[in-house]
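Continuing the batch. This is chain 6 of the set; chains 1 through 5 are on the previous pages. Same settings as before, nothing changed between runs. Recording input and output for traceability.
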Amino acid sequence: MTSTDTTGQDAPRYVRLSIELIAEITDEGALKAAALQQVADDEYLDDDERAQSVEAIEVDPSGSLAHFIDPVALLGDVPGVELASATWESAQTEFDPEGEGWDEYTVEESAE
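Output for chain 6:
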């Protein structure tokens, strides 16, 4: 099905968005503390989920970053769109800004 094909005017259409971000952790302690606070303040986590979240934060700083990803906020203000499902993960990766393929989407810091 292409974007111009329709199965009915009122039929829901689902779109899978794939987004890849590379984030540099510049202060692991600050990130960990903020993530632990985020987990402590999350009223929707049950005790088991909270324990798993704390363990993930303690083991790997990439686990900390995942607690700040909010797909609802990403699509919340888009008219005519409702979030149907969301999954995401964070993991350490190799990053070489000089390597092939990385420069295409690299955010350049401006010198002041």
